[in-house]
Amino acid sequence: MDRSWRCSGLRWSARGPGLEWDGGRRSALTWGKRVAFGVAAGGGRTCVGARGNPCPVRAAVSGRSTGVRCEECARLDRAHSVAADTLADDPRPYHVYLAWFGPGMTKVGITGVERGPVRLLEQGAVCFSWLGAGPLMAARRAEELLRAALGVPDRIPYAAKRAVRSALPGGEAERAAEIGELHARAVALPAWPQSLTRAPLGVVDHVGVFGLAGLPDAVGEVSELVAGGRVSGELVAAAGPDLHLRTGRGVVVLDTRLMRGWELTPVAAEGEGGGPGEVSVPVREFRREDHRQDGLF
User: Which residues of 104-131 are buried (b: 16+ CB within 10 A; e: fewer)?
Assistant: First the structure.
């Protein structure tokens, strides 16, 4: 029987993106790299557990789920998360940030100061700027203030982010304009929390980091993995959890969260040396009105 691996996710660091595997192994990802894997035949997708503990019943989960947890493990995981507001006494400092994903798509969010910009890379933020830093609840109040006073959302759907990646403005100044305008309005709000130190505008652009310059339109996105399926292609870009792969049918987007919970096997990378790859799992094709792209591997 072929050796199988379990993917624990796409991770971003100063070294760039990499796929991590249960057991600590890491596969660095670079542009032009051939990505190829199979899904073990005869098996199914199982819950990844919560808080570093395996699911006690190895519950089955849907192939289309990006959460990869059964209902009980998802509840346990969220109960100890910052997003659930159950850590009000967390002593660590937090950043408040503005993140831009495309024209008209700017969100506000918070992340631990110790994490630096990693959270922005994980979300696929094309560019971002810090707004301030301080205690968790002060950061939360600032987030709420921007939503209420300026109408800035705290979530942008991944489908919307993918749809515009191949049609972004070409210049950094143009990409930074919306953040600059919102930053000025945000730090001038009179109800700004006193314990949150304002940060000056400093837009960081990720187009080069993600490989988005000249990105071809995607023809579709992997909607789920299935037992016995295969995915292979040349990596042309990566943003957030998404890999954009050049295949025989064109560029396809794979949300790597779909890989978790499956037993994955190595396969011969067909087309090695520049030829097309293959995708023998369900792919949702993009229509013209989907905009330009959606995601790949």
Answer: ebbbbbbbbeeeebebbbbbbbbbbbbb
**CA 171, 175, 179: angle at the middle one, nearest 5?**
150
Using CA atoms, how far apart are residues 56 and 58, in angstroms rounded to an integer? 6
Question: 218-227 pLDDT, tens per residue?
Answer: 999 999 999 9
According to the model, what pLDDT value does residue 279 have?
95
Q: Does this model's pTM top 0.85?
A: yes
DSSP state letter for 286: P
Q: Residue type for 230, please? A: R
CA 257 to the chain's CA centroid: 9
Average pLDDT, integer, range 11-17: 89
8 A C-beta contact, residue 89 and residue 72: no
Structure tokens at 67: 């959460």
Q: How far apart are CA 218 and CA 295, in angstroms?
A: 7
